Amino acid sequence: MKNIYLSSYLAIKEVIRNRVRFLMVALVIALITLLVLFIAALGEGLSNANRQYVANLDAQLIVFLEKSDFSITASRLETNTVKAVRRVEGVADAGPIHTSNSEIVSLPEPLKISVLGVEAERPGMPLLIEGRQFRGGEAREAVMDRSVALRTGLAVGDEIEIRSTQGTEDRFYDLKIVGLVEEQAYFFQPTIFVPPATWELIRPQSASDLESDTPYPNIIAVKLTDPASTEEMRLRLTNQISNIEVANIQTTINNIPGYTAQQGTVQTQGAFTLLIGVLVIGGFFQIQILQKIPQIGVLKAIGSSNLVVGLSAVIQIIVVTAIGVGIGAMLNYLFSLGLPPTIPLEFNGMRSVIAILLLLLIGPLGGLVSIIYAIRIEPLKALRLG
User: Fold this and answer.
1) Over its length of 386 residues, how does the chain's per-residue pLDDT go in tens digits?
2) Helix, coil or strand: residue 227
3) pTM
4) CA distances from 229 to 66, 200, 301, 317, 370 (A)
5) Which of 7, 158, 162, 376 has the fewest beta carbons closer than 10 A?
6) Under DSSP, is residue 40 helix (H, G, I), strand (E, B) or coil?
7) Whole-Å CA distances, 97 to 44, 47, 75, 179, 286
8) Antiparallel, parallel or unpaired: β 128-131 and 244-248
9) How are the residues of the chain apportioned to helix, strand and coil, as percentages rounded to the nearest 5?
10) Structural contact between residues 132 and 177, judged by C-beta atoms closer than 8 angstroms
11) Which letter, b or e, does each residue of 85-118 get, where b requires 16 or more Cβ atoms within 10 Å of its Cβ?
12) Angle at which helices 19-55 and 2-17 pack, to 10 degrees?
């Protein structure tokens, strides 16, 4: 206990006496912290913007067209496949999901959106937080996700105008917003939900598609009676229904175009930033130890143990690193308050905590060489008497 007290006293006393020098290092660590937390938030935000809707589905399995490689955009199922899936034993419910893109043009600035055709009260339709479900058939009604409301100021009861390219012409459709759901971004875009028949009417179509009025679903969200039996039900669905392949939610997310590569890139950037932090902290404290070799020699000459010297260096590194990380976390919070909602940043609590713990760890790790060097200093050589 005495060694800890003495080490703490020496470490903190030196930080106070050389506060300008140590503050500069703490500010460098703060900038590294800001960058690491920003990259972590960007990774989480991009991840959510790409997979949010799929990850929040009230379903355990997704049915695709056979040989579509679990790609939502490459899959297009027959309409009778939905009924066939619902008849399979162990399936609690199944809902078709139709995907396309469009643009709201009745705003001061047009907003690109994802338009999803789903059936009300079925898997694929998120829970309402305001308003009511849309009616069936070709009802010109829509439910929007909260991010649309945040970006545009639209509310339940408002009407929007959608532009859709039909063949070689642009056509415009009016929809009334009747409900609101939590944020459900799909392929980096905010989302509105419409009945399948309405989706077929307003979706962008080629000239050949104009002759058909049948809404073919891209995928089917399957809710199981026993959510734990996903593998068994996957095999059962594949065996009983022809021309399909089935995946769980995580496999579906991993096969979203660009998702895996995007997350790998962001994580690599975060790892290199931490490595830079290790080198910066290590370099500074190595220079710091070299500058005070005579002082360490005096401490050892008057009886201070290697434990006291080494522990003092560790505490000093932890204190300076903690101050830098604290300043960086505060700057990161203030920085996030001024960002517009269009920037996909998501300050996830767990990711931020892990990032902060790693940042606190890189301090002692970066200073490990200087700690070992301080312990190995010989008093007589340090005082040039050896």
Assistant:
1) 776 777 777 778 878 888 888 888 888 888 888 888 888 888 777 777 778 888 889 999 999 999 888 989 889 999 899 999 999 999 999 999 999 989 999 888 899 999 999 999 999 999 999 999 999 888 899 999 988 888 888 999 999 999 988 877 888 999 999 999 998 888 888 899 999 999 988 888 877 666 777 888 999 999 999 999 999 999 999 999 999 999 999 999 888 877 777 778 777 887 888 788 777 777 777 777 777 767 776 766 776 677 777 778 788 888 888 888 889 888 888 887 777 766 777 776 677 777 778 877 877 777 777 777 667 766 655 556 55
2) coil
3) 0.76
4) 22, 34, 70, 51, 55
5) 376
6) helix
7) 25, 21, 11, 18, 59
8) unpaired
9) 50, 20, 30
10) no
11) beebeebebbbbbbbbebbbebeeeebebbbbbb
12) 100
Calpha distance 293→289 (Å, rounded): 6
Structure tokens at 370: 């200087």
Note the helical H segments in 56-176: 80-87, 146-152
Separation CA 232–CA 61 (nearest Å): 11
Q: What is the dihedral of CA 183, 185, 188, 190, to 10 degrees?
A: -70
Which residue in the block uniquely carries the two structure tokens 């920085």?
A: 335
Q: Which two tokens stand for residue 383?
A: 């005082």
For the chain, the first-to-last Cα distance in angstroms comes to 32
Name the nearest CA neighbour of 190 among 287, 53, 14.
53
Q: Which residues contact 36 (CB under 8 A, 6 or more apart)?
A: 270, 273, 274, 277, 328, 355, 358, 359
In DSSP notation, 172-191 reads: EEEEEEEEEES---BTTB-E
Task: Tell which residue, 98, 56, 93, 59, has the closest CA to residue 182.
Answer: 56
Q: What is the C-alpha to C-alpha distance for residues 374 and 132, in angstroms, rounded to an integer?
A: 69
* DSSP letters for 69-92: TT-TTT----THHHHHHHHSTTEE
